[in-house]
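Record format v2
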Amino acid sequence: MQPKKRKKQATATLRELFVAWFKIGLFTFGGGYAMLPLIEREVIDKKGWTDKEEILSIYALAQSVPGVIAANTSIILGNRLAGVRGAVVAAAGVMAPSLLVIMAIASYFDYIMKSVYVLQAFSGIRAAVVGLVAAAAVRIALASLKDKPAYAIALTAFVLSAFTEIHAIVIILGGALAGFLVYYFGAKGRAED
Amino acid sequence: MLMAFWHLFTGFFKIGMFTVGGGYAMLPLMQQEIAKYGWITPAEFIDMIAIAEMTPGAIAVNTATFAGFRTAGVLGAILATASLALPSLLIIVPLSNFWEVHRDHPILKAIFSGVKPAVAGLIGAAAIYIAETAFLYDPLLAKKDGFPVDLRSLLIAGAVFAAVRKLKFDPIKAIIISAVVGLVVFGF
C-alpha cells in the first residue's frame, strides 16, 4: 500500500488532457471564474496536475495575457504536462463542447429560447453555480491567505474589483508590485538589519 | 466564400489578440467586428449573449462559434473558434515556459506571493457578481413581485454550497441535479 498523501505524478496523456478539459468546458456555465470549481475537481483533486495554491498563479497569468481565460488556463496546464501538443489538445478540449452545443442550438434557436422548461432548468443551474463559486472562493481564501500582508492585498483587491471599474489586470499588477515590495524588498530589508 | 473564411480568421484572431481578461471584455471588439463584416444581425448578437451565458463554455468562444456557424456552417464555426484561441497559444506557450523555469527565483516568488491573494480577492468579488446576476436578474424569476430574491434559488445555492464544501460533492453532479430540481420547483 502506498501512503495516502503521496503526490500523484504530474504527467498526462493527450487523451486524458482532452477528456478532462472537455468535461470542464461542458459543465462551465458563465465562463471565467465559474469554471474554477470544476478545475479544482478535475485537475487538482482527481488528476493532481496542480494544487490549490498554484492554480491562483496560473489564473493570474491566464487573465493577464490576451484571450479567453478558460482557454488560456487550459493552454498553460496543457503546455506544462505535454508541451505544445498538450496545449493545443487542452484548448481544443475546453472549446469543443461550445462548438457542439452552440451549433445544435443555432439550428433550433427560436424554439429553445421560448421553452419554459429550458428556462426553469437554467434557473436551477444558475443558482447551483452561485453555490459552487462561493464554495471555491472560501476554499481559495483559506489556501492563499497566510499572513497579514496577504489579507490586506486580498481585501484591497476585493474592494477594488467589487466597487470600482478598475480592470482585473491592473489589480493583478498591483498585487505583483505589493508582493515584490513586501516579500522581496521587505524581507531583504529585515535581513540586513 | 474564401473571402468569408479569411474575414472570420482575421476578425476573430484580432478579437483574441487584443482583449485581455476574457468574457465580457471581448464583447465591445466583437460587436465592432460583427458590424464590420455583418456575420450576424445586431439583434442576433444580443440573443447570442443570452444564449452564451446559458450554455456551457466561455462566452467569447460561444459567440465566435455562433457567428462562424451562421456565416459559413460547421467549417466556419471551427475556424472562428480556432482563430480566437490562436493568439493565446502563440503568447502563452513561450511565456509559461519562462515561468516554469524561473518560478523559484526569489523575485518571481515574491511577486506571485502578492498576486495570489489579489486573485483570491478578485474571485471573491466575482462570486458576489455571479450571485447578484443569478438572484436578481434571472430572466424567469426577476419578473415576479415581492421578495427580490427567489427563496428557491437561495435554497438551491445554499444546498450546493454545503454539499460541495462539506461533503466534497462532485460539481458536475450538483449542476445536473440542480437543473432537474429547477425544472420541478420553478414549474409552480
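Chain A touches chain B through 110 residues (CB under 8 Å).
The mean pLDDT of chain A is 84.
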